[in-house]
Amino acid sequence: MSDLIAYVVTGLGIGAGYALVGSGLVAIYRVTGVVNFAQGAFAVVAAMLTSTLLSAGLPHVLAESAAVLVAAGAGVLVGLIATGEPGAALIITLGVGVFAYAVEIVVWGDQPRSFAGLPGVLTVGDARIQAHYLLILAVTVPVFVAMGAFFGRTDLGKALTACASNRYAARVVGIDVRRMGLLAFALGGALGGLAGVLTTPIQQVTFDSDVTLIVNGFAAAILGGLTRPGVALAGGLLLGVAQTLIAGFGGGAYQLEVALLLMLTVMVVQATRAGALAGVAR
Amino acid sequence: MSGRTAGDAGKWWLVALAAVVTLALPPLLPERHLTTYVLLGLTAAVAVGVSLLMGYAGQVSLGQAAFYAIGAYGAGLLAVHGLPPVVGLLAAPVIAAAAAVLLGAPLLRLRGHHLAFATLAVQLILLSLLGQGTWAGGAIGLQGIPRLSVPGYELRDDLGYAYLAWLVLAVVLLISRNVVKSRPGRALRAAASSEIAAAAAGVPVGAYRLAVFALSAAFAGLAGGVYAFYLGYLSPGSFPVLLSIEFVVMAVVGGLGTLTGPVVGAVVIVLLVQVLNTVGTQPGMPSYAPTVFSYAVYALVLIAVVRYLPRGIVPAVSRLLRRRGHFPWAGPAPAAAAVGPGPGGPAAAGAEFGGSASGAGISDSSGFGRPVLPGVASGGSASGASGSVAEGSAPEGDGSAGSTAGVGIADAAADGSGSAGVASGSGGDGSASGSPVDGDAAPGGGVTASGNSASVRSEPGREKR
């Protein structure tokens, strides 16, 4: 029982990271129609930057916030590069992701990095849980609530949603679609950066850990068809818990396989359904 | 094409020249460059498959290295367990193709970025399994793979493998060329433009798409087989995700939907990486320099080409040469004639449907003329159709963010006979002219044209010339 609780909490912590990466994907995809392959790089850059800032003596919250801001800036940059060429955006973001490798190695080297998270261990029942996992949840859930409020209640959020819904109509009513796209990229960058900053204390980060992050984030986001952040949260948490449970109860090293198979199944089922409805896919 | 035209003659001269150069080069190269030469041949062979898949079936695969690995491990395991290496080599493409059929049957329902992530996931799964499977040597790798041999002769030195690798590339190119010129090839071209129209004309779109997927996997598998015997050692680390990306970069940079494109792309990138590698290993350079340079090359070349030469190097160069009139034979006379009069042409709206950014252009004489980056454009599989409807109704002039489909990659008519512009200055909807004509009328392609003619949306005035 204590194992179960520990696994679930660990899973939720890891899953929150996936959910944040996934929601970053969603934020960008909704507004611009671009699936940002460089999404994982935001997390890596923010994590590495945080480790540098912390070792330079910055206090904790400040270092993380600065890293997230930089990640948002990186998001805008990627947006500037990627949105000019809608036909090839995925390929361009792929290129940006690879370029990020070069930058990351030059700046931070190719060794894994980590930094200390929230210290302390909590005891729930007889399960011992690192406090940092709870911190991850305590940040992630409010972020998603705030995002929901932002998209649903503020003018800016509504404008973003309008772009997502019908770009042409949004332009007709005077919304600057391009600026909204860049804003979405900034938001996506910040969310990716937040994921990196939060999960690095529990999982080391190397320059190429973005592949795992992006695939898991995509898996989380795909449940909601890449358009619903709330579903991405649920999907990410589910994915994280499933992985730790599998790893904990005997699946050993096959957690990645299971998660990816889950994603493939979801996508194929979705495509088959959509195909039956639209008659497009076969 | 029936009959040898002047264009064909010129093309054959080029092919002969390329063959002579590739045959003459290996003995002249120093040992360490010979390794690069072998790997270049193999990589190019895989990239041809990727180009076929992306340019033809309109699908992006970010997991092509998985099939490379499957071929390599298949050949390696068979040889390690005592079968003659030649059997292993011949089995490699078959195993890879079989794997592609099994995987493709469910996965090819996906489109665009969904398929890209699915193939990436497949590769990650494969790498993880290979890393854990003791039968495959685990993370340490599969060792002791014998050299390739036929009874009485063992292929031992690098020189032999250099010729073998480029023989593989030649075979791959020959098969691709014949596939492209076949009826299924034309049907696929039609299907990539408009799946609905092609399907309505009786093209078994799904089956053909699966066949191309399997074929490209077979190419990768064959190259992987040679790789296994050449190195004699395989590990999951030899087939990173970045390798898959590398294949895509080469195909895109050279020009999707051309036969020579992936080869040119591979040569350009490998040469660049080699040069920078030499620079990066100079004394005084930091130890990470070569790695960083190679990443930077992939990334910057890819981004630059996609942004500034959206059809790739080969189509851009051949168009430039034709425009200057240096190579009059290079102008595909039949295609140009067929396209001629129509401003935008009936085939123009190819890009409208299904989200595959495309026109039906088959301009370039070298190969299977397909547009750039199909499939990636759209909002996704199911949304493609509805998305394009919305777009069709949007009379926006600058089409910047709005038009997801078919932006400016159309250009087809090869010699400037005036049909299609590359996205005209304003970046508007590139009207794909271009015709599925290859001398003889393409049945599927023809239907594409007529099926879409209702949705032609490019006004003549927007044409470039």
Write structural notes for this entry:
The complex is a heterodimer of chains A (282) and B (465). In chain A, 76% of the residues lie in helices and 3% in strands. Chain A is mostly helical and 282 residues long. With 465 residues, chain B is mainly α. Chain B folds into 2 domains: 23-296, ABC transporter involved in vitamin B12 uptake, BtuC; 313-462, no CATH class. Chain B contains 16 helices and 2 strands. Chain B has a two-stranded antiparallel sheet with strand order 1-2. The longest helix of chain B has 27 residues, at 205-231. The radius of gyration of chain B is 22 Å and the shape is globular. Chains A and B meet through helix 4, helix 7, helix 8, helix 9 and helix 11 of A and helix 5, helix 8, helix 10, helix 12 and helix 15 of B.
Structural class of chain A: mainly alpha
- Principal-axes geometry of chain B comes out as globular
Top CATH class of the largest domain in chain B:
Mainly Alpha
Helix content of chain A: over 70%
Please state the overall shape of chain A, judged from the principal axes of the Cα atoms.
globular
Integer tally of domains of chain B = 2
**SSE pattern of chain A:** HHHHEEHHHHHHH
CATH architecture of the largest domain in chain B: Orthogonal Bundle
Brief summary:
The complex is a heterodimer of chains A (282) and B (465). By secondary structure, chain A is mainly alpha-helical. Chain A contains eleven helices and two strands; from the N terminus they run H-H-H-H-E-E-H-H-H-H-H-H-H.
Search tags:
heterodimer; A: 282 residues; mainly alpha; ABC transporter involved in vitamin B12 uptake, BtuC; 11 helices; 2 strands; globular; disordered C terminus; B: 465 residues; two-stranded antiparallel ribbon; 16 helices; 58% helix; 1% strand
What are the SSEs and their pairings?
The complex is a heterodimer of chains A (282) and B (465).
Chain A: H1 2-32, H2 39-55, H3 60-82, H4 89-108, E1 121-124, E2 127-130, H5 131-153, H6 155-165, H7 167-172, H8 177-199, H9 210-222, H10 229-251, H11 255-278
Antiparallel strand pairs in A: 1-2
Helix pairs in contact in A: 1-5, 1-6, 1-8, 1-9, 1-10, 2-3, 2-4, 2-8, 2-9, 3-8, 5-6, 9-10, 9-11, 10-11
Chain B: H1 6-28, H2 31-55, H3 64-80, H4 85-107, H5 112-132, E1 149-150, E2 153-154, H6 158-181, H7 183-193, H8 195-200, H9 205-231, H10 241-254, H11 260-280, H12 289-308, H13 313-324, H14 333-339, H15 383-392, H16 443-452
Antiparallel strand pairs in B: 1-2
